[in-house]
Specification:
The chain is mainly α. The chain is built from 7 helices and 3 strands. The chain has a 3-stranded antiparallel beta sheet. Helix 2 runs antiparallel to helix 6. The two termini are 36 Å apart.
Length: 178
């Protein structure tokens, strides 16, 4: 297909997309799965954000809390690395969580220049609420899928994550299996 034919085809697809909201934008015709993953990720994050707002959390803070609940006290620098976020973003998250009484920061006794971050005892009720919110989100997200389809989706998403982690060369947390 020459460039003009491709351009005309893309323009027609874009026009058709105006009439069909589920149609791919012309620029995404070469990546329908990537486009779908992006849309699903956005919708999932929005749904999670609505649930978290009811708990007094901003999206992303629950991942930070999950890490602290599972790891115990960690250095702030380690938390920044494991979250794979800009240090200023993690600092802002910690400030908000500290203000609400969910985390505590203190000097590391082994290195007074380092800061340890830990979940507070008060965050235990938040732990239960986050777990319940994620369980509800899981059920909402996977409604209509049979157990075998859910397992297959999880397996395929782990492979996709593995591909992206391999390309990035540095993914936080455990790497997905094949």
């Amino acid at each position: 297909m020459n460039a003009d034919a491709h351009s005309t085809g893309a323009a027609q697809a874009a026009r058709d997309g105006a009439a069909r909201p589920d149609a791919l934008p012309g620029a995404a015709l070469g990546g329908p799965v990537s486009h779908a993953v992006s849309r699903v990720a956005r919708l999932h994050r929005n749904a999670a954000g609505r649930l978290l707002k009811g708990l007094g959390l901003y999206p992303g803070q629950e991942f930070l809390m999950m890490h602290l609940w599972d790891s115990g006290a960690v250095r702030q620098s380690e938390l920044i690395r494991s979250m794979d976020l800009d240090p200023s973003t993690v600092t802002k998250m910690l400030q908000r969580l500290e203000q609400t009484g969910h985390v505590r920061r203190r000097p590391d006794p082994d290195d007074r220049r380092a800061v340890l971050v830990e979940a507070t005892d008060e965050s235990c009720s938040l732990h239960t609420a986050v777990r319940d919110a994620w369980s509800g989100l899981e059920e909402h997200t996977l409604a209509g899928l049979a157990p075998a389809e859910r397992a297959e989706l999880a397996r395929l998403l782990a492979k996709v994550e593995g591909n992206l982690c391999q390309e990035a060369g540095d993914c936080p947390g455990p790497r997905p299996g094949p």
